Amino acid sequence: MAMNKKPLKAKGNKARKKQLLAKEIKHIDITKLPGIVATVDSMKSMAFSARDLARAADIFDRMLKDKSCGVILTLAGSLISAGLKKVIVDMLRNNMVDAIVSTGANIVDQDFFEALGFRHYIAGDEFKSGMYDGELRELAIDRIYDTFIDEEDLRICDEATQKIFDSLEPGNYSSRQLIAEFGRYLEENGGPKTDDSIIYEAFKRDIPIFCPAFSDCSAGFGLVHHLHSKDGDPHVAWDGGKDFYELTQLKIANPNTGIFMIGGGVPKNFTQDIVVAAEVLGHDAPMHKYAIQITVADVRDGALSSSTLKEASSWGKVDTAMEQMVFSEATLAVPLVVGYGYHKGSWKARKAKKWSSILDRALATA
Amino acid sequence: MAMNKKPLKAKGNKARKKQLLAKEIKHIDITKLPGIVATVDSMKSMAFSARDLARAADIFDRMLKDKSCGVILTLAGSLISAGLKKVIVDMLRNNMVDAIVSTGANIVDQDFFEALGFRHYIAGDEFKSGMYDGELRELAIDRIYDTFIDEEDLRICDEATQKIFDSLEPGNYSSRQLIAEFGRYLEENGGPKTDDSIIYEAFKRDIPIFCPAFSDCSAGFGLVHHLHSKDGDPHVAWDGGKDFYELTQLKIANPNTGIFMIGGGVPKNFTQDIVVAAEVLGHDAPMHKYAIQITVADVRDGALSSSTLKEASSWGKVDTAMEQMVFSEATLAVPLVVGYGYHKGSWKARKAKKWSSILDRALATA
Amino acid sequence: MAMNKKPLKAKGNKARKKQLLAKEIKHIDITKLPGIVATVDSMKSMAFSARDLARAADIFDRMLKDKSCGVILTLAGSLISAGLKKVIVDMLRNNMVDAIVSTGANIVDQDFFEALGFRHYIAGDEFKSGMYDGELRELAIDRIYDTFIDEEDLRICDEATQKIFDSLEPGNYSSRQLIAEFGRYLEENGGPKTDDSIIYEAFKRDIPIFCPAFSDCSAGFGLVHHLHSKDGDPHVAWDGGKDFYELTQLKIANPNTGIFMIGGGVPKNFTQDIVVAAEVLGHDAPMHKYAIQITVADVRDGALSSSTLKEASSWGKVDTAMEQMVFSEATLAVPLVVGYGYHKGSWKARKAKKWSSILDRALATA
Amino acid sequence: MAMNKKPLKAKGNKARKKQLLAKEIKHIDITKLPGIVATVDSMKSMAFSARDLARAADIFDRMLKDKSCGVILTLAGSLISAGLKKVIVDMLRNNMVDAIVSTGANIVDQDFFEALGFRHYIAGDEFKSGMYDGELRELAIDRIYDTFIDEEDLRICDEATQKIFDSLEPGNYSSRQLIAEFGRYLEENGGPKTDDSIIYEAFKRDIPIFCPAFSDCSAGFGLVHHLHSKDGDPHVAWDGGKDFYELTQLKIANPNTGIFMIGGGVPKNFTQDIVVAAEVLGHDAPMHKYAIQITVADVRDGALSSSTLKEASSWGKVDTAMEQMVFSEATLAVPLVVGYGYHKGSWKARKAKKWSSILDRALATA
Fold first, then answer.
1. Which residues pair with A149 in a beta bridge?
2. Ordered DSSP codes for A169-192
3. Interface test with chain B among C26, C29, C48, by most B beta carbons within 10 Å
4. 3-state class (DSSP) for residue C301
5. Higher pLDDT, B44 or B301
6. Which of A35, B100, C45, C157 has its CA 20 to 30 A from that of C16?
7. Which parts of chain C register pLDDT below 50?
C-alpha cells in the first residue's frame, strides 16, 4: 500500500521563508478592552451598521441574561487565523456559549494547529495582490488573503489527526466525539502549546463542538489516510448523521435556544435546522428565540450564507422578535459584540450547561 | 419510541396558500439559445465582468476540448430552485461534466424534491421585504428570497429519504452511494415526475454526485429519523470520510482535472483539497489545470467562499494559467457560460467517463 | 502668468509602453445580437437577478411603447472605457433615449476622448493586482481596473476642452450647452475620429447631455486653465444651477418620464430630484413613472448610489408600480437590457423629442 | 411668474406622523470614548478589515503629526443623518482637518438642516422593508434606509437656501463661498439651533467646504427657485469651475497633503484630481502623501467610488507608501479611526491653516 512517508519540504530559499514568516498574528483580548461598552452604547441611536451592531450586542446580552437559554455559536470563514481565537476562548471560559458548530478549518486547521505549537503570520500588503503566489507555492507557504501559514506545519497537523484516528477503537463517531478526542490528545501530551485553545477549553468544560462538514479540513486528510491504511479492515469513521442527531438532542433537552452566527454557510444552516429535526422526532421544539448574525454576505443571491434571519422565520427556524443581522466583516464586529457582552457581565449569573456530558450519558445508556 | 407520525399541516387559509403557490419557477433551456455564443464573444474585448465572463466561457470550452480532462462541477447557493436545473441536466446529458460536488440542498431538497413531483414557485415582489414571513409560517410556505416552497411537500421529501435509508443494508455509505440510491428509487418508482432530474440523469450515466455536508439537507432529517427509529440497532450511516476518499481516488485515477465552481463554500473547498489528499496518499497529483468560479462573494473576508483562485494556487490546489473568477450572481452568468460551452460543441468529441463505475469496481474488489 | 506649455512626456521605455497599449477595448454591438431577446425571455420565470433583469428589460420596453414618455438615461461608473459606448450611441440613433445625465468622465474623458481619435486598451490580468502601478506611472499610463489609458492622450483631450472654452463668448453656460459645443467642435473639425460618438450623435439629434458635476472630469482641467489664463477678465463659466433649471424645465414640458439608471451617484440623484424641483417651481409634476437601475451598489449604507427605487418613492420621486433594480455589474446587464429593448423594436413607433431645441428656444425667447 | 408659495403639507394623519418621528438620531461623541485607542491597537496584528482599520488609524495619526500636511476630508453617503456629525465637528474644532469636499446632501440637506433646528429620526426596523413607503409619502416623511426626515422641514431648508441666494450680490460664486454665506446666515440669525454644526464651525474657523456637485442637494432647489424668480435679471450663480480652481490653489499653496475619504464618488475623485490640475497650471505638485478611504464599494466595477488608492497612483494622484483602504460601512469604521486620532492627540501640536482666508485674500487682490 503506497503511502506518503516523506515529509513535505519547501523547495525555495529557507532564509526567504523565515523572513516571510516573521510576524505572528496576535489574537485580540477583549477582556482588556472595557471601553467597548461605551463605544457600542454610543452607536445605539445612530443609523445603518452602527445601530444594527449595537442592537445585536444588546440581544447577545439578553441571551446571557436568560438563564435557561442555551447559546449556540456558529463559525464560518477564517476566523481563528484572523485573530479571533481568544475572543472565542473567552466565551467558553466565561459560560457565554454552550455549543459550537463550525467549519472544520476553524477548529482543526487553525485552532488545533495553534495548539500543536504552530502559528499564523502577517503577510505583507503586496502579497494580497496574488502576484507572489507562485513563489509562495515553492516555499510551501499557504496564503489566506493577508495571512500566511507554513504548509509544512499544516502537514504535521494533518498527520496528528491521523494519529488520533489510528488510536481510537474502530467504529462510527460524531465529529463532536472526534473533536473531544483531539482535546484529550492535547491533555495527554502536555496541554496545548499556546495560551488559548478552543478545542482544549471546550474539552475541559464539556462543551460540544460540531463540524458538520468534518472531512472538509485537515482532519479530512487524516481520515482519508487512516481509511487508506486500514485497507478494508474495521476503522474509525465520521458518521455525519450522528452529528445532526446529537445536536437535535440538545435542542430537545434544552428547548430555549439562541444562536450567535459568525458567517453563514453549513454551520448556520445546520444549526437552524435542528428546530425542524426536533419536530420530525416528535418534539414540539420552539424556534430559536434569539439570533444574531455577523456576515459580509449579500441577501440577493439565495446562497445559504445570505438568507436573512427574517427569511429563516418563514421556515419556522428563527423567531423574529429578537433577531439582528450585522453586515460587517467579522474581525471588526465580533470583538465589539462579544466585548460588549463580556463587560456587561450578565454571564456571571449563568451556569455551565456541560452539554457534552448530557450527550455522553445518553450514549452510555443507549 | 415517540415519532412524528402526523403529517405537517398548514394552519392558514388554503385558498390563500393556493393563490401564493400559483406560478411555477421555470428552468432556463440553454440548448434553445444559440444566440449566447455571439453575445459572449462580443464581451471578450470589453472590460470588467463582461471580459471575465467571456474568458471563463472560453476556459470552459478548453476544458471540454481537452479530452483527458475530468470536469468537476461544484454547486453552492440555491441554484435548482432558481431555475438552473435544466442547465445542469444538459451538462450531464452532453458529457460536459464528470462529477458533481454540491450542497445537499441543491441535490436533495431541490432536485430530488422536483423529481418527486413537487415544484418551486415565484414569490411576488412584496414578499422579498420579509414583512409577510409570519403569514408564510402559518401557511407552511418556506421562502428563499423571491421563491416559495410548500413545506408540506418538503416534509414528504424528507420522509422519502428516510424510506430509502430504511430500505438499505445497514452499514457505512458515502453520500455518492446514497445519492445513487435516490436515483435507483426514482427508477424503481416510475422515473422522475419531471422532465429533468440531476439525480436521475447522473444515476443513469454513472456520474458521481457528492454532498460533503450531506446531513445539512432534507436527507439529514431522513438520516436522523432513520437513526432514531433503529434505536441502537445496526443502521445506515453516512460516512463523510468515505466521500473524501472516493473523490480523491478519482483525482488519482484521472489526474488531469478542471473545476467549474458555482458559488463557493464546502463544495469548492472540498474539491480543491483532493489535490493535497492525493499527495497525502503518495500520488504526485497535478493541481487542477482549469478552474472557473462564478460567485457574488467578496475577496476581502477570508471566508472559504471567497478565496480567489489565485490564492488557491499558493496552496498548490489550482493552476493559475487557466483560471477565471466571474463576480456575478449565478442566474445571470451560468446560462451564458454553459450556453457558450454547449453551442460551441466541443463536448461532442468527449466520451462519458462513468466515474461511478470506477468507484464501484474499486469497492467491489476491495 | 505661469502656465504649463510643455506637453506631458512619459519617462519610461517607449517600446514597453507601445506593447502595453496594443489591444484596444472593443464596444459591444447589440444590434447584431438578436439572440438576446430569447435569452432574456427565458429568465422571466427564474429567480434572483435573472428574474429582476428580465423584468427590467420588460419595463424598458414599456417605456418605449409609451410614446409620451420621455426617457432619461443616467450614467455613472466607467462605462464608455468598458465597452458600452456603442450601446448608448445605438440608443441615441434609434430614439430610445431623450436626455442623458452623466458623470463627466463618461462623456468627456472617455467619449469625447475617443472622438478625438484616442482609444482605451485592454490591460493584462496581472495589472489588476496594482503591483505595476508604479511602472505605469513612469510610462504615463492610467489604469481603470483592467483597462489602460494613455495619459499623454488624455492631456491632449484636456487641452481640447480648453480650446473650446477659449473660443466661446464669455458668460455662464449649463453643462448641456458646453457639451453641445463639444459636438459642434467635432462637426467643425471633420467629425469624430471614431465610428460612434455619444457627444456627436446627441449634438446632431438635439439630445441634451447634462453633467451635474462637470468640473469633475477632463473638462474641469480645461475650465481651470481657461479661468487661470483669463486672469480676472470675463470668461466662460459652467453654471451648475442652470443645469438643474434646464433639466427641470424638461420635466415640466414633458411630465411623463422614465429613467434608465446605470450606476447611481450624482446623475441618479440629480435626475430623481427634478420631480421635486418642478413642484418647487409651482408645477404639479408626477413622479417618474418608470424606473430601472443597474448597479453593484449595496442597499445597506445609505449612500446615494444605493438608495433603492422603493426608498425613492418615499421621497415622492419614483413611482413604485414600474420600477426594478438589477444588482449586477453594468457590462453584463446593460447589453442584455438594451439589446432586449432594441430587438423588441417598440422604439420604431417613437418620435425624436429633440429636447435641446426646446431648451434653446426657451433661452432664445428669455 | 408662477411660483410655489403654498407650503408643503402632509396629507396623512398628524398623530401617526408625530409617532413615527419620535426618536431622534443621536450623534456619536468620540471625545468621550478613550477606550477606542486600545481597541484599535489590539487590531493591528489581526487580519482582514481589523488590520486594515488599525493601519488607516495609524496613517491618520501620521498625517496629524506631519505639521506641514494639509488634511482634506471627503464625504459621500448619508453620513450626517447617520449620526456622524459630531465626529466631523470635533475634527474641525481640534485642527484635525483643513478642508472638506462633500456631497451637497451631507452639508446642506443634513448639517445645515439640523442647524436650522430640524432633526433626523430613527425608523423602526419594519420600515427598512420598503413596504410602508407609500404611507410615508402621504405623511411627507422621507426615508434613508433606517432613518426618517420630515419633508416639510426639508422644504423649509430649501427655502432658507433661496433666501440666502436672494440676499447676495448677483455674480458667480464657488460652492465654498456660498457655503460660507450659509455659515454667516446662521451667525446672523442667532447661531445654529443645535450644539454642533459643520457649516458653522467651519465658517468660524475659516475652513473651506466645497460641494463639487452643489446643485445636487437642497441648495439646488434654492438655486433653481432663485434663478426662476430673477427671470433673466442678474442673479447669483454657482460657478463649478471656480470650485476646482480654488481647491487647486490650496494644493499649490500647501503642496504636502493627505486625504481622508469617507465613501467615494465625486468628492473623492475631485480631490484626487487637484494634483493633476496643479500640474496643468504649471506647478510641480506632489501626489497626495497620505490617503485613507473607508468605503463599502467594490473594486471590481470601475466605478469612481471604487477605484482603489493603488489604482489612483497609476494616475499620479496618490502616493502608495501611506495609503490604506478600509472596506467597512462608515458608521462602524469612522468613529474608530477618528476616535483613535483624537485620543492619540497629535493634533494638539498642529496649527489651524485657515485656508479660506488664503482663498479670500487671493480673490481680494485679484
1. A142
2. PSEEE-HHHHHHHHHHHHHHTTS-
3. C48
4. coil
5. B44
6. C157
7. 1, 300-306
